[in-house]
Amino acid sequence: MEYNTTRPKILISEYGRKVQEMIQYACTIEDREKRNKVAKFIVSVMAQMHQQQRDTADFRRKLWDHLIIISDFKLDVDNPFPPPQPLTLSTKPTRLDYHDKEIEYRHYGKNISVIIEKAITFDEGPEKEALVSAIANHLKKAFLTWNRESVTDETIEEHLKILSKGRLQLSDDFKLNDTNDILARHKRKKFNERQPESNGNPYKPKKKRRMNNQQNQQ
Predict the structure, then answer these.
(1) What are the residue boundaries of the structural domains of the chain, listed by start?
(2) Using CA atoms, how far apart are residues 138 and 132, in angstroms rounded to an integer?
(3) The model's pTM
(4) Could you give the CA distance from residue 107 to residue 142 in angstroms, rounded to a whole number?
(5) How many CA atoms lie within 13 A of 157 on its CB side?
(6) Which of 69, 95, 103, 169 is the most exposed place for a label (fewest CB within 10 A)?
(7) d(CA 133, CA 170)
């Protein structure tokens, strides 16, 4: 009995061992015309295995690239696309730069810092007070998403002060949204999202059709 551990490694597992064996056979064909026909047949088999990707960009090119890669870059055929080079597989992608260090509190996200910077530029007045109040309530809501226990209004005010570098503050008589109300709204929202819609109302059951006895008798 032959075990997979003793067989050659499958280079691209999504096509399986049989496709790899067909490609290896194609590499042994000396007649170029016949080799091209076999390569096209193998590509068609590969396409049948992944029909759900037919509408993706460069689908045919991806198949031909995989054909060459599985052959270990040994299959010499009339490729309708520029064949991939071995170097492309060993080249590492460019490392992306992240800016997590600039986020004071990660559970609030990066966008809140942009909103706070915009609020700082507003002139003093009702519009700025409304914006600062909305930001503070958003901070509390985001905090409760991260920590479901409880959060004091003093903590939110302190975080707002830190995030704005002391340039934004709430009025003395302002009250943040109640913790229980925030959690209750969040719970209702999640519940509604899980309910299947019926006639536009998630709570209204579908009406059963009533048969017209007079029509049935006709």
Answers:
(1) 4-88, 100-194
(2) 10
(3) 0.45
(4) 7
(5) 12
(6) 95
(7) 7
